Amino acid sequence: MKDMAAPGTVEALQALLRNPPVALSRRLTECAAHILENGNRIAVSTLNELVEGSSIQPSTVVRLCQALGLSGFSELQRLYRSEYAGPATRYNLHLQGPGPRGKTSRASLWGQFLDANRQSVEGLIDTVPIDTLTAAAKMLARAETVHVVGCRGAFAVACHLAYTLDRLNLPVIQHLLPPNASLTGTMRPNDVVLAITFAPHAPQTIDVTSIAKQRGLPVVAITDMLGQGLAGLADLSLNVREQTVNDLRGLSASMTLGTALAVFAGQLRERAEARATRAKG
Q1: What secondary structure does DSSP assign to 150-162, as a single string?
Q2: Which end of the chain is more exposed for a tag (fewer CB within 10 A), N or C?
């Protein structure tokens, strides 16, 4: 397989892993099974994180990648990231023509909206591993203040997150954009920025996030472009793929993710405060 062409899609890669053209060694076979079982982690994990807790060595993953025509783990990861965060048009659900007027066409459109939002929410299980979600919640729970940033299509998500975090007694400030000096001046070293934006990324959100990074604040991102735009500034990214209908993006997955993130953070904060109270007693 040394000179074989690299697979161009995750589907093609998985087909090679299941049915390699030539026999693999026992270790490479075990590694192939591990990659198939943990495909939802590859785009958001380092090589060491991917093999953690298994008998697979990082060098074995690299050898398998090269055997499949890839240069190494980085190219494997780019392949998975392109599937998770490709152009939004790849996931569009376009209307099938105007259709008959009246009740039938409205029913068809209603069904498309329901199906698109169902797919968006179900897709979270692939794009947001529970370990990544928990790590993000821990960052928010430890923060002295959570600064929520989001505008345009992400504004509703930002409002929902700020409201939910406040209801769960986490100190939160929602930044209205463009950047406000009086608000960015409230950022302190032990704070965390929670930024939300989707392609095409809102420059105002990027500006506030850049200010936070310059001040050394950790950033959690909710976005749809891994490794690009906002994700390139973030310490941890939660990847959301919202399906669209007739180029209109829904927010079901983003709202679901935001609610879970806030609740997880609230639980962790409450437990930490309870432990601190018991320690004092």
Answers
A1: E-GGGHHHHHHHH
A2: C
CATH numbers and ranges of domains, the chain: 10-84 (1.10.10.10), 103-280 (3.40.50.10490)
Which pLDDT value is given to residue 182?
Answer: 59
Cα-flanking dihedrals φ and ψ of residue 6, to 5°? -70, 140
pTM of this structure: 0.63
Question: Among residues 95, 116, 92, 119, which one has the least CA distance to residue 105?
Answer: 95
Please list, in sequence order, all residues whose beta carbon lies within 8 angstroms of the beta carbon of residue 253, skipping any fewer than 6 positions away.
117, 120, 121, 123, 124, 240, 241, 242
Q: How many CA atoms lie within 13 A of 123 on its CB side?
A: 21
Judge if the upstream peptide bond of residue 171 is cis by omega within 30 degrees of 0: no
Residue entry with tokens 């529970």: 130
